[in-house]
Amino acid sequence: MRKVISVIAMLLGAAALVVGIGQKTFWAPPETVTASMPQLADEAPLTLIESSVNDPKLDPVELVIKSKGEFTASLGRDYDVEAWIGDASHVSVTGIDTENHKMIAEHAKGKADAPNPAGDDIFFDSQTADQTMTYRWTAPDSGDWSLLLAAGGKDAAPVDISVTYANDDAMPFALPLIIAGSLLLVFGLALLVMRPGKPKSGANTQHSVAAVAVVALAISGVSLPMAPSDESSAKPSESEQKSQDAKASDDAKGSESASSSVEEVSSFPVITEEQLKRVLADAQKQVAKADEKIDAKALEPRTAGAFKYLRDKRYDMLKEKFEVDKPLALNTQVIRSAAVPNANEAKFPRVISVVTAKNNDADTLPQALTLVQANARDNFKVVFAGQMLPNSTFPGIAVGDPSTKQLAANAEGLQMTPEKALEALGKVLTDGNAKDKDKFAESDFIKAVHAAQKDESKEANEADVKYNRTVTKGDTKVVSTPDGGAIVTGKLNNKALFVRTEDADPLKSTDKLTEQLLGSSSSNGDVESTYAEPVMFYLPADGSKDKIQLISASQILLDVKEVD
Fold first, then answer.
1. pLDDT tens by residue, 403-461
2. Which of 331, 412, 531, 543 could form a disulfide bond with 494, CB atoms 3.0-4.6 angstroms apart?
3. Can you tell me the distance from the alpha carbon of 82 to that of 84, in angstroms, rounded to the nearest whole number?
4. CA nearest to 70, candidates 147, 12, 156
5. Do residues 131 and 69 touch, judged by C-beta distance below 8 A?
6. What gap in Å lies between CA 49 and CA 161, rounded to an integer?
7. How far apart are alpha carbons 174 and 318 in whole angstroms?
8. Is 246:381 a contact under the CB 8 Å cutoff?
9. What does the radius of gyration of the chain's CA atoms come to, in whole angstroms?
């Protein structure tokens, strides 16, 4: 009987070894597998690879993209990429079927062409390749990111996409079989050479076989249930129960904290710091190029609103050889503060306000800028830029501050709505005794405007001077600050009307630019001067004792003419 058991154990052990070693070698599955795209009946100008393809279980995800010619891959936040696609026809790659090793994709109908997305501000990065690209998916920040493929927007976007990932079809019993087989072989050999003793019963043999089986199963990773010694041991002690209750409470708090943390990071800045640096550098380059050539058309890629309008007017004056200075050059090399709103969905237009400088020197006068992105396919454009006024401050805000939000011109929760604050500023500039004058902090700009208006009245040769300021509605942009206040950008239109009395002397031009615009050194009729006053100011939160503070402001003469 002993020899029979020995032979059986050795045969079983040999079989287990062969199977176990085979699973590790010649029967082993490939270490990686590749999922490929299904056949699609229709083509599209765009291919969207959604964030769900970047499965953490398959990390790292490596895409191999093939095309007939040159194409680009642009990475952006999922909601931004979807907003950019809009109603264009596209192929959506939504995931990977790891069981059948196939990509999950579908075709969405829409417009047959789209712009080229490469380099647009809304994308964090764009890479170009010719025919083949191997793309290692690495998210630059938290949140969900999608990849958009395009071959210029006119031709069909690449759909020959494959993903290689680690094969999870492992052989889990390979090592246990090798261990169990080895033990059975040793046991069989030991039993074969063991000298027979005085037979007592079959219990010893059975106990030996059972012991070896338990050891083999234990080493192989298979656990056996053990019965409790008595009823009391099956129940936790009072102290253990308290410990478990405390641990459960801690787990609940931890879960609540984690949930809160998820809520905090669910909102992301509309543009990352790296993107912002790229946008500002390009804006400086494009505006400098337009200034050099005095070319209004060259402003279009990076300017809009009041900034472009005033730049165009200045270019016209320079071309007419009027005696005016060249416009303020942009210096965006260093970002000192940035009010960048957070948004977890694509809402447009988007507004950001920043303070920049040409270097980090404390004596360098910073510039305040506001940029607007009209829609997902449009780039950020400068709508306001000006030197910061002496003794003015701009709140120190880091890109990504979750408390920064974009506000409307009629936003509540501030000392007054932004549009009302602009109207109040216009009244204070017109009349130094306006009822809202005490709501504004002392400002060199306000003092200078009052002094200039007083001088104009004195030099008007007995003519009556009336000032009328209005707000350009579409130019008001607002971004909140972490303390509950807001940065407001806008433009005031100022018309100064000089009305001559019957016995007044002719009105005379006080400077060369006025004379050039009027076309004469004097006028026997009434004269109207038109100014633009682009401004940026800090508007405190409702209940704050702080005053409204001008950050940047200027007065630009646009036109002088005789009126009836």
1. 999 999 999 999 999 999 999 999 999 998 999 999 999 999 999 999 999 988 888 77
2. 531
3. 5
4. 156
5. yes
6. 10
7. 83
8. no
9. 38
